[in-house]
Amino acid sequence: MRKIFLILLTTTIYADDLDLGDDFSPGDTVTAEKFNSKFGIVEKVIGMPKDADLIGTWQCRSVHFRQENPFTQYSGGFVYYLDGQITFSESDSSSSLTSPKSWSGNIAEMLFDSNDTSGTYSLFANLIAFRIGSETTNSGAVFEANLTSEDQLLLKRLRQGGGSLPVVASLCNKSS
Prior knowledge:
By secondary structure, this protein is an alpha+beta fold. The protein folds into two domains: 2-46, no CATH class; 51-174, Lipocalin. It has helices at residues 2-13, 32-46, 51-54, 107-112, and strands at 56-64, 72-73, 80-89, 101-105, 118-124, 127-132, 140-149, 152-157, 168-174. Strands 1-3-4-5-6-7-8-9 form an eight-stranded antiparallel barrel.
């Protein structure tokens, strides 16, 4: 009963954004396969992302809430944006905690103000730690990573310690 309530609540919350396919109509016979397919989508979105969920190429738009080069200001607004791409890849099926996975693309400028185009990452729960450049560097940042649908990822940089880092949020859509 608890799972059904959770499905209904989650479906209501994400109803505008989450595509579960065709709706069931009164009197429809619902197969276990169709129900489990829809439940699997909901479970993936409300659960913790897994390494396999990230693998592929994502088109991203990052925003800053203050002027930041090379970000472009939204016309008439005070928010600045930059578009980019990131590809997550893996060479084995081990967890990224024990075998960091690779990332590449032009997203480093968006996320870290860096010109590097590759590095590694590890995923723990809904936190993704990016390392920029070679395996011997400690440059990078930690982001909260949440799937908002099967093909959409929201990344939010977490602040560590004092100082005032600009807020960075990236909304990424899977392209392959």
